[in-house]
Design a protein that fits this description.
One of its GO terms (cellular component) is chloroplast nucleoid. By secondary structure, this protein is mainly alpha-helical. It contains 12 helices and 2 strands; from the N terminus they run αααααββααααααα. It is globular.
Length: 284
């Protein structure tokens, strides 16, 4: 009976599922998520498990229709261990092949360009970080890690010229926050400041609309460039993890280009590595 059910499931996926998914309406996955939430609320584990299998099957089918670098980003952000992600990236850069994931399952992965992978993750990051609020900081942290690790594995590493995505003007809020960090010694207090911002607190907190009475008192404490009062009277945009690391890389590149490396460069590299470590903890 078990073998028969497995055969029927395999046949359904092959003969019917693929054809139907290609014609699927855009709201189908949203409906699935809603049904999964209802099953969880009703404590119906069997129904919830079946719906999750269907959802994963849909996602797997759609993923296979994506370009190789998009497929790889999807695999990377689901891979918890750093060593496994690096092994996956090396395999992808070498042309693809069979990869064994964290859970011991083998999967066939395509070959892809590391720069395309980094740029794809960066595009997703830009889309997420441009919003007023970040609904899923875990996903955001994973995408930052994917982008940074793909870039780091490229020939020039962190300062590879291919990593330049056209950021000609450094963002004020990230520069202000970085200025605070480089003024302090690399200790626990500094790490705590970075951790708070990466978790959406302090300078990294989402802007929430307040009443006019509350906003008047808040504006009195707003700061603009270099700690001066805010000219617009509005709260500045929050510090975003992806943009913050982009800013650190830009500043670090400028330090090396001007031949003024030393304590400043070491400090910036410490900030970069510490931020990645914190995001790794947040992501998984």
């Amino acid at each position: 009976m078990v073998h028969l059910s497995q055969w029927l499931w395999s046949w359904w996926r092959k003969e019917l599922f693929g054809k139907r998914v290609d014609e699927m309406e855009s709201g189908f996955l949203m409906a699935l998520d809603y049904m999964i939430q209802l099953a969880q609320k009703d404590a119906d584990d069997e129904c919830k498990s079946l719906l999750e299998v269907i959802k994963q099957t849909v996602l797997d089918h759609l993923t296979k229709k994506c370009p190789p670098h998009v497929q790889v980003v999807g695999l990377l952000y689901q891979t918890e261990k750093k060593e496994s992600r690096h092994e996956l990236l090396r395999c992808v850069a070498a042309g693809g092949g069979v990869f064994k994931n964290d859970k011991g399952l083998k999967c066939q992965i395509p070959g892809a360009n590391l720069n395309d992978i980094a740029n794809q993750a960066d595009d997703l990051l830009e889309s997420m970080e441009s919003r007023d609020t970040i609904p899923d900081r875990k996903l955001l942290a994973r995408l930052v890690i994917v982008r940074e690790e793909a870039r780091n594995m490229m020939g020039g590493g962190l300062l590879d010229e291919r990593n330049d995505r056209g950021l000609t003007t450094l963002p004020v809020v990230e520069v202000n926050f970085l200025s605070k960090l480089v003024a302090l010694k690399p200790r626990k207090a500094l790490e705590r400041m970075i951790r708070d911002v990466m978790n959406g607190k302090a300078e990294g907190a989402n802007n929430i609309k307040q009443s006019s009475a509350d906003s008047h008192s808040e504006h009195e404490h707003l700061t603009g460039l270099s700690g001066r009062g805010s000219v617009s009277g509005r709260k500045p945009r929050p510090v975003r993890p992806g943009m913050f690391l982009e800013t650190v890389s830009k500043v670090l590149g400028g330090v090396y280009a001007s031949n003024t490396s030393g304590i400043t460069a070491q400090h910036l590299e410490w900030v970069h590595q510490t931020t990645l470590k914190i995001l790794q903890e947040l992501a998984f």
